[in-house]
Amino acid sequence: MRTRLRKRWGWIVLGLLAGALALMYFRSPRHDPVSYFENVALLRQIKQLDARWELDAMKSRVGLNHNYDPLVAPLPEMERLPQRLAAMTEDQPAGDGGALGASIAAYQRAHNDKAALMEAFKSHNAVLQNSRAFLRTAQEDLNTLDGHAAGQAAAIGNQVLLDTLIYAQAPSAAQALQVEGGLAALAKAGGGLDETGRERSELFTAHVRTVLRERAITDQLLASIAEAPTAARIDDISAALGERQQRAVQQLQTYRLALSLLALLLLASLALAALRLMRNHATIKRVNHQLHLANAHLEQRVEARTAELLQANGRLQREMAERKQLECRLVQTEKLASIGQLAAGIAHEINNPLAFLASNFGMLEEHLDSLFEMLSVYEAAESCIASAEISARLSGTRARIDLAYLKADLPALVAESRGGMDRVGKIVQDLKDFSHVESEQNWVWADLRGGLQSTLNLISSDLRQVADIVTDFAPVLEIECLPSQLNQVFMSMLMNAAQALGPQRGRITVRTGGAGAEVWVEISDNGHGIAPEVLPRIFDPFFSTRGIGKGTGLGLSLAYGIVAHHRGRIEVQSAPGQGSTFRVTLPISQRTMAA
């Protein structure tokens, strides 16, 4: 009887342990890392769309976008993705999705506010661009007026147009005051115009004031768009999602520990039952052996699954690094494209007035020759004049105006003016050579000496104020490259060399050479040098040894990226008080390096 009771209690205990083990197993949370990584990828996609949205707004501001489609196109996708974010909290346990839901709601509010700012920016920027585009037409209408007062108004209008375009590109309080002064002068000169002239003058003035007003408004809207906390809200969502994932992992570990303890208790009960039931020893031993095999198989599966997760995590990290590099290259490409287009546009605008100035000076030289020829005839006929009074008057006038000096000085003045126009033409050509807008995205064969000389010509006014420039160029330095990007590298290094000289006048030396399948460009200065603890960080983005507000810290970082894109390298030698030497080494052929 007692033996039967022991057996019954033993089976009851075993049943309770087995039931507790099954209950813990079915109630244990299901850990799904794939869903977590999908959510992280979704957040990254939203952040990229938001950043591209802001970039398109800046491009619309500077006129790179010819319409507002880039500002409208991301909206459907950016409104659909938050709906998927909201679905994250639907399957969360009670109290687990509160922080995540609040973060998503905060992001949606920030996104709605930003969308409203974008709409306002589109409206005001459209008014700004229309008025700025119409200014040329309005000024041309002023130029068609006849009369002395109309000529004065047209001249003032030309200056106001130039000041307004400069203000639209780089607004400042001083430039705005200069434009207002020009408008006041135009209004004063407009008093002598007829009704048509006054209407054209008032129309021109209205559009200038529209540019002044809308430029300030669009700048304020762009600042508000940049300050919109959408990226911070996305980071809050990512942090809340990470905390949720961490809690799920901790809870899973707790359930696993409890399951392990119950399994141990169950094994102990089975062992005790085996000792008490010797007659069933063989059966229990066989079952125990099978259980061990199952555990071994489970461990192998766990190890295999863990290895797969580690591989997936490695691939994800590599993809994130590659996308980061791609984003940096895209930002660099956009910057270089903007600089090139701006330089080419300025060169084109200067060429137009330079062309008609050269033509006018040619006609002026011909007219002066004709006048001098006529004066020679008058001088020859002066001795034949019978009237003594007229002869004395001619002699007095010739002496008073110093006709001989004028005949000698006027050609010299014309020659000096033509020389000045030739210098302006040379500067324009150097600006075109520096930009290379038409081929900036294509690999071409170019001579590095031309790029270096164009860059030195462009910034010569800044360099020669602080340093003596010494050049030593090798005979042939033609390589396969992106010329405009390498010009940007040379400009950054030359400006850094000039800034390193300090208040004392120094020397900057530019050398070139080649060895084997490579060429090199070396820029040296005798400035204060670079400290050893700072030297490893000079190519880091946003790192600068200059004071706050005196540098962005992006020049050498962009230069390093451009040289790396050309499969080259940058080497630096520097010591405090002894100056610095930067050497850029580049392959002659990109195809050879790729092979």
The total count of strands amounts to 7
DSSP helical segment count = 17
SS strand fraction? 5-15%
Assign a percent range to the helix content: over 70%
Please give the alpha-carbon distance between the first and last residues: 90 Å
Could you give the order of strands across the largest sheet?
2-4-5-7-6
| Low-confidence regions | none
Q: Characterize the biggest β-sheet.
A: 5 strands, mixed
Average pLDDT confidence is 75
Can you offer a commentary on this structure?
With 595 residues, the protein is an alpha+beta fold. The chain has helices at 2-27, 33-62, 69-72, 74-86, 98-143, 148-169, 173-189, 195-227, 230-276, 281-382, 388-401, 403-435, 448-458, 460-463, 483-499, 555-565, 590-594; strands at residues 444-447, 467-472, 478-481, 506-515, 518-525, 569-575, 579-587. It has a five-stranded mixed beta sheet. Strands 1-3 form a two-stranded antiparallel sheet. A hairpin with a 2-residue loop joins strand 4 (506-515) and strand 5 (518-525). The termini are far apart. The mean pLDDT is 75.
List the main descriptive attributes of the protein structure presented here.
7 strands, 8% strand, 73% helix, alpha+beta, five-stranded mixed beta sheet, elongated, 595 residues, two-stranded antiparallel ribbon
